[in-house]
Write a structure and sequence with these properties.
By secondary structure, the chain is of the alpha+beta class. Helices cover 26% and strands 36% of the residues. It has three helices and seven strands. It is globular. One of its GO terms (molecular function) is acyltransferase activity, transferring groups other than amino-acyl groups. InterPro entries: Acyl_CoA_acyltransferase, GNAT_dom.
């Protein structure tokens, strides 16, 4: 299930981020995104397994600044679900996503053809 993050879920989101990057350096940024309703969360039952942070002030387009799935929950389709949900928002149809190749691979996502694939 994908929902807009609630304030009371911030600790769980921060913990996933810490597990992925090793610290809480983005704490303020994440909390601000949650307060501004610009954070989506993916849930498995009631546990948060991933999140997406976006902004709408990028040259009149949307910018996805973070798309993170808990390491133990990857390859289960949560990132794709977050992207699909994001696309339903009444925002500019064009959006940008910067990728960092931490795992030496890139996930290619196409919102036009409903396909995604992993490129090694």
């Amino acid at each position: 299930m994908i929902t807009i993050a609630l304030q009371e879920e911030s600790a769980e989101i921060l913990e996933i981020d810490r597990e992925v990057i090793g610290n809480y350096s983005r704490k303020k940024y994440l909390q601000e995104a949650i307060m501004e309703n610009k954070c989506l969360v993916a849930k498995d039952n009631s546990s948060i397994v991933g999140f997406l942070i976006y902004d709408t002030h990028f040259f009149e387009c949307s910018f996805i600044s973070l798309l993170i799935v808990h390491p133990s929950e990857r390859q289960k389709g949560y990132a794709k679900l977050l992207m699909k949900y994001f696309e339903t928002f009444p925002l500019p149809r064009k959006f940008f996503l910067q990728t960092i190749n931490l795992m030496k691979r890139c996930i290619v996502y196409s919102h036009q053809s409903d396909t995604s694939r992993v490129v090694l």
